[in-house]
Amino acid sequence: MIETPTNLAGQHPALSALTQIAVSLGHLPAANIDISSVYPDRLFIRLHDNLGAFEAWRDALGIPADAVFYRSGASGMTLKAESRYAAATIELTAQAPGEPRRPRTGNTLRGRPYFRRSADHPQCEPNSWL
């Protein structure tokens, strides 16, 4: 378990990753970015109503398309991916209204169906949410 930092220096991994992203990937679409004292080595990047922006971030961070998880429901869909960048774990999340084409099978995570885009689910083609 990671110890909760008592000062800003304890959040260095996430702050360093954010600085590197701002300098080298400053062309990416604006996003909600959070750094938590509870998870000082994580950088949370959230995008709302713009799945094209998610794809731009995913590509720039080098996250493989088949590493994207998505969940759909009555209120819309959520895309989520994680990756290491600099010294931090990046948690990239996008939420958008609407219902995408859904695979017939999937994994269950905490009682909710999460589907992984992969060769096992050919109807979930890369960029199919754009």
What does the model show?
The chain has helices at residues 12-24, 51-60; strands at residues 32-35, 42-48, 69-73, 76-85, 88-96, 107-109, 112-116. It has one domain (8-116). The chain is globular, with a radius of gyration of 16 Å. The model is unreliable at 103-130 (pLDDT under 50). β4 and β5 form a beta hairpin. It has two helices and seven strands, in the order αββαβββββ. The chain starts with 11 loop residues before the first helix and ends in a 14-residue tail after the last strand. It has a seven-stranded mixed β-sheet with strand order 1-2-5-4-3-7-6.
Give the SSE map.
Blueprint: H1 12-24, E1 32-35, E2 42-48, H2 51-60, E3 69-73, E4 76-85, E5 88-96, E6 107-109, E7 112-116
Parallel strand pairs: 2-5
Antiparallel strand pairs: 1-2, 3-4, 3-7, 4-5, 6-7
Q: Any descriptors?
A:
130 residues; alpha+beta; 7-stranded mixed beta sheet; 2 helices; 18% helix; 33% strand; globular
Estimate the mean pLDDT confidence: 80
Distance between the termini: 38 Å
> How many domains in all?
1
Number of strands: 7
Estimate the helix proportion, in percent: 10-25%
Number of helices: 2
